[in-house]
């Protein structure tokens, strides 16, 4: 019976690691895409840092990426940046890859 218990603990540990990594990738991605958006809006480095924190925080409003897309789109349009939802989603995909790469290199 210990073999099954060991396997169960191993699967639970792997699940926990995978979930933690997914959370870290998403948080890093949100920071990267916020920096991209801040550059589009012409924010200062201090404003960029505060904006990145706000975007990361916005991701906790609901499950999925809709809350982040909505915030970025609203902020970019308000700042007079010519953009659309498709461009933001493309940036999210690119920044997800970059975030995953950065985290893998850091390990």
TrEMBL record:
Protein name: Aldolase
Pfam families found in the cross-reference section: ATPaseInh_sub_z
Record organism: Edaphosphingomonas haloaromaticamans
InterPro entries found in the cross-reference section: ATPase_inh_sub_z, ATPase_inh_sub_z_sf
């Amino acid at each position: 019976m210990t073999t099954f218990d060991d396997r169960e603990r191993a699967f639970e540990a792997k699940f926990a690691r995978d979930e933690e990594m997914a959370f870290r990738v998403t948080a890093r991605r949100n920071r990267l895409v916020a920096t991209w958006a801040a550059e589009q809006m012409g924010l200062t480095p201090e404003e960029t840092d505060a904006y990145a924190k706000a975007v990361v925080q916005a991701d906790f409003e609901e499950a999925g990426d809709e809350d982040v897309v909505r915030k970025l789109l609203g902020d970019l349009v308000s700042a007079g940046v010519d953009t659309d939802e498709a461009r933001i989603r493309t940036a999210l995909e690119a920044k997800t890859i970059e975030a995953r790469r950065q985290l893998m290199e850091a390990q």
